[in-house]
Amino acid sequence: MKSEEYLKSYFGLDGKVAVVIGGTGELCGAMAEGLAGAGAEVVIVGRSLEKAEARLAKIAAAGGKAWFHSAEATNKAELEGLRDAVLQRSGRIDIVVNGAGINSATPFFDISEEEFDRILRVNVKGVFLGCQVFGKYLVERGQGGSIINLGSMSAVVPLSRVFTYSASKGAVHNLSLNLAREWAPHRVRVNVLVPGFFPAEQNRKILSPERVASILGHTPAKRFGEARELIGSTLLLASDAAGSFITGEELIVDGGYHAMTI
């Protein structure tokens, strides 16, 4: 077997349909590009077509297939509508990325109940509903599938200044492992992709020069990650061939941050 055929047999996603919730963002947008590049038909899900258009154009220019659907990740009825729309247009769903999320850098004693509830609603409820709506479809279909939930380094090791975000991502990690156990007999794999420090829209407001210096000093790679560097991990977790025995995994992509002590 030629090397190209070998790679395609393990990482190719021809005939698969991937739903990327939060695909209008930087990190999940890059993941959507990677899935499309591997042959999947990709549904980019968010609230703004304007944000999605540039990503859709890049996918189309590379010969991939993708389309946009507007949905609110915290609204079960909208996610059910999304599921039905994808099945009607694309005929199946094989891969789901739950990546909608928001952050804040409020000092602990100043965190309002409204802010706490808002972050928990998006980061935890959004993943809960995404898993419930699409996981039910995958389990009942009986053909397996892959759910990739976006976690955070702050759920692995405590990080300063992101109290509510850390708590919410800790819940995402825990929920994902619970579902991986429940759905493994149905060949539905649930994993957590854990980015380290990647400059993105939701964390730019907390990246002061002092915090950047602290992060880089604690990262053996001495740099931030680039969104495209999540693609390889995404394809591994999405593939029924390469990732067939991977479930309940917290796959960290962080340039060595979590390995650093002193």
From TrEMBL:
One protein family per Pfam: adh_short_C2
Keywords carried by this UniProt record: Oxidoreductase
Chain ranges passing through the membrane: none
Domain Ketoreductase, residue spans: 16-186
InterPro entries: KR_dom, NAD(P)-bd_dom_sf, Sc_DH/Rdtase_CS, SDR_fam
Matching PROSITE patterns: ADH_SHORT (PS00061)
Gene Ontology terms for molecular function: oxidoreductase activity, acting on the CH-OH group of donors, NAD or NADP as acceptor
UniProt record similarity statement: Belongs to the short-chain dehydrogenases/reductases (SDR) family.
Listed name of the protein: SDR family oxidoreductase
Organism whose genome encodes this protein: Oleiharenicola lentus
